[in-house]
């Protein structure tokens, strides 16, 4: 099979386009013929910096956690009827050497999730880490629901920072599907259009001197939840916008990596700060997210493409290094690698 591999941490130059043996599924595993591989920030960062002190967990790594494809073989203990099933994949490369940047990947059966019949492989490959992160952030709202779904967030106002990014896009769509009023902060008119296409009813330029007033005009009592990509950079804005008993759910580390906030103010409002890293979340949270995300996708609530607010940048497998560069550069939209 064709695959992208690297055997040392470093720049894009460590990536190689090679032939490797097709893997066999073990007990409780399935093998998926990959159609599309999804690329996330975690993928280039793992390649660039390694696991610990620049070292890799395995002698050779095939990158990428997310993707979509078709099950073509199953291991012991897995229903043979799953062969031929269209699936979306998550965490394929978490503590495993082989991710989705290859023609075939083997994963535990629960990480190959049935893809609803009307949902495209493009959507399937765009779910994974971004959608799971968004789901966890949305459930962090104080006194909130146990599940997402129609009506679950009725009456809630959600502010999504960076509404044109992959996680922000998923957060807008999942929150809208669940009945929330969504405001998104963006940095340009182009990104405002994308956030609105995803379902945001208001967009605000977070760099404007009037940003606080602009959000307050849409949410006079403040917001119930902020889905935050850059907590250290946006903390002053966030604390001005939080309603009493509100929550900041931060899934990113953009900024200087340190967080300083006015304790007296946030204590007075009984504010909660929740930090989210998908890879280390409890398994039960991941399984819940996967179930809700699949339901939302089946309902048509999770869509991709320019018209849906998430432009797709696509690269063939042999140009995976270019795909990594595109994600690292922070471009708008979702980066996909076409494998099949």
Q: Care to describe what's here?
A:
The chain has helices spanning 41-49, 121-126, 128-138, 166-177, 189-198, 211-218, 231-241, 263-268, 283-298, 320-328; strands at 2-5, 16-19, 29-39, 66-74, 86-89, 104-108, 112-114, 157-161, 181-186, 202-205, 223-228, 242-250, 272-275, 312-316, 334-338. It is α/β, with parallel strands linked by helices and 340 residues long. It folds into two domains: 2-127 and 302-338, Quinone Oxidoreductase, Chain A, domain 1 (Alpha-Beta Complex), CATH 3.90.180.10; 134-279, Alpha-Beta Complex (Quinone Oxidoreductase, Chain A, domain 1), CATH 3.90.180. Strands 3, 4, 5, 6, 7, 14 and 15 form a seven-stranded mixed beta sheet that branches. The chain has a six-stranded parallel beta sheet with strand order 10-9-8-11-12-13, sandwiched between helices. The chain has a two-stranded antiparallel sheet with strand order 1-2. Strand 9, helix 5 and strand 10 form a beta-alpha-beta unit. It is globular and about 60 Å long. It starts with a strand and ends with a strand.
């Amino acid at each position: 099979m064709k695959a992208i591999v690297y055997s040392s941490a470093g720049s894009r130059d460590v990536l190689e386009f090679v032939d490797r043996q097709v893997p066999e599924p073990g007990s409780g595993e399935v093998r998926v013929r990959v159609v599309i591989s999804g690329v996330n920030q975690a993928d280039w960062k793992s390649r660039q910096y390694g696991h610990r002190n620049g070292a890799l967990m395995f002698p050779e790594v095939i990158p990428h956690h997310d993707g979509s494809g078709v099950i073509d073989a199953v291991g012991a203990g897995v229903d043979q009827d799953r062969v031929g099933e269209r699936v979306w994949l998550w965490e394929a490369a978490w503590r495993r050497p082989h991710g989705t940047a290859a023609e075939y990947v083997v994963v535990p059966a629960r990480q190959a999730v049935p893809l609803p019949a009307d949902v495209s492989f493009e959507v399937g490959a765009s779910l994974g880490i971004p959608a799971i992160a968004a789901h966890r952030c949305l459930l962090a709202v104080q006194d909130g629901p146990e599940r997402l779904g129609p009506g679950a967030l009725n009456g809630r106002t959600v502010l999504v920072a960076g509404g044109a990014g992959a996680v922000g896009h998923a957060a807008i769509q999942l929150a809208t599907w669940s009945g929330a009023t969504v405001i998104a902060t963006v940095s340009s008119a182009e990104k405002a259009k994308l956030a609105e296409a995803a379902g945001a009813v208001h967009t605000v330029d977070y760099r404007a001197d009037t940003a606080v007033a602009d959000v307050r005009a849409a949410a006079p009592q403040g917001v119930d939840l902020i889905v935050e990509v850059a907590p250290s950079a946006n903390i002053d804005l966030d604390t001005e916008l939080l309603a009493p008993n509100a929550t900041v759910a931060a899934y990113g580390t953009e900024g200087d990596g340190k967080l300083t906030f006015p304790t007296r103010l946030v204590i007075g409002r009984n504010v909660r700060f929740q930090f989210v890293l998908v890879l280390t979340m409890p398994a039960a949270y991941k399984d819940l997210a996967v179930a809700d995300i699949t339901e939302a996708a089946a309902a048509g609530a999770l869509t991709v493409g320019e018209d849906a607010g998430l432009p797709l940048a696509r690269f063939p497998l042999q140009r995976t290094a270019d795909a990594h560069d595109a994600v690292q550069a922070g471009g708008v939209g979702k980066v996909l690698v076409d494998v099949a």
